[in-house]
Structure prediction request, 452 residues.
Amino acid sequence: MTATLVKEAPPSPPAIADRARRRRRRGRAVALLFVLPALLLLGALVVYPVLFSIGRSFFDASGTRFVGGGNYAEMLHDPATFKAVRNTAVWVVVAPALLTGLGLVLAVLVEKVRWATAFKLLLFMPMAVSFLAAGIIFRLAYDEDPDKGVLNAAVVSVHDAVTGTSAYPTARAREGQGLSAGPDGSYRTDTSLSPGDTVALGLVGVPPKDLPAGAGPAYPAAGRKAAPDEVRGVVYLDFTPGGGGEQGKVDRRESGLPEIKVEAVRDGRTVASTTTASDGSFAFPGLDSGSYGVRLPAANFAPPYQGVSWLGPVLVTPAIIGAYLWIWTGFAMVLIGAGLATLPRDALEAARMDGANEWQIFRRITVPLLAPVLTVVFVTLVINVMKVFDLVYIIAPGPVQEDATVLATQMWLVSFGGGNNQGLGSALGVLLLLLVVPAMVFNLRRFRRSQR
Prediction:
C-alpha cells in the first residue's frame, strides 16, 4: 500500500503577526512583573511624598486650612529663606567647580605616580565615611580652642613661631604698689626716677607653675646698687609660695620674672629699652641726668593668640565646603580618571612628537576630549550640593546655624526644628525640587546622547 505524504500549508501572514503580538504581550507582562516591585517602591518613596508635599504646601501649619499660595508668598518674604538661597547658590557655584578641577588635576597626576592604585584608594576612602561621622570629625577639627581643634593648633604654632607670644598673659600689677595701668594695657611707675635710683616692680596673677624654667630668685637682684648714670630695678612675682611675705617688698623666696620688656621713658618718649634677666633684673646705663619713668609695655601681657574662628559667621560656609571637598574629591577623581583612561593615546603621543609640552597637551587635548565627562561630573555634583544637609547641620554651631543654613536645613528647621510649620516647610521642599529638576533632566539627556 502506498503512503501519501500531505505537505502542510504554511501559516498565513495574519497568523504570523498574531503570534508575534502574543509573544510581545507575554514579554511585556513578564517585564512588568519584574519591574512592579521597583515601581511600587518608587511610588511609595518618591512619587507619593512629592505629591503629598505639593499638596501640603497649600495648607497652613496645622494642615486644616487651605491658604493657596500663602506659604510661597511668606517664603519669598522671609529673610532666612533668602539667606538659605544665597548660601545654596554659593555652594552650587563653588563646590562643584572646585571638586571638578581638583578631580581633573589629581586624575592627570595620578597617571604619573608609581603607586597610583594606593593613591586613589587613599583619596577615595573618605567616601566610605558617613556624613554624620565626617561632620563630627570636622566639628572637632574646626574647634576654636587650640587644645582641641587641630587646625587652630597648627595656626597658633605657626603664628607663635613667627611673631612670638607674650610670656605673662595673666600678669597684673597690685593696686597702690607703685605701678599704674595705662589705657593700652601697659604699666608705668607712679613716681619719677633719676640716674642712680633702683626700683622693684611687683606683679601678681602668674601661677608659679607657669614661670619659665630658668627663673631665679629676685632677692639678690633687688639688693644691687645702681651706678650714678643708670636706673636699675627688678620685676618680680609679688607672691610667696606657702604664704607669708610682705606686699610691695621683695622677699627671699619670691621669684624674678625673666623675658619681660622694660622701657625707660622721658617726656613721653622711649629713650632706652631692655629685657629682664633670669632673676628679673634690668638696667638702663648711660642715662643723662633728669627724670625718667619705667614702663612695662602691653605686649608683655597680651593674651595668647587663639587662632582663626573657623565656625564664626564669616567663615562657617567655606569651612563646611572644605569638609565637603574632603569627602567628594576622590569621587570626582575616580570618574574623571575613568574617562581619562579611554582617551586615544595616539593623539597624545602625536602631540608630544610634534613638540607640545605637557601643559599644552593638557589644555588643548586632554581637557577638550574630557569635556563630556567633566560636564557629567559637574552636573552630578550640582545636584548633590543642592541637597546637602548633614554637614551643615552638624558642623555649624547653634549660634551661627542661621548664617550657614541652606535650603535643605531651612526646610528641616521650619518643619521640625522648632518652627513646626510643615506647610511652609513643604513649600521650601517644592522650591528645592524645582531647582534640582533642571539639572537632573540635563544629566539624563546627556546619558541618552552618550548611549546613542
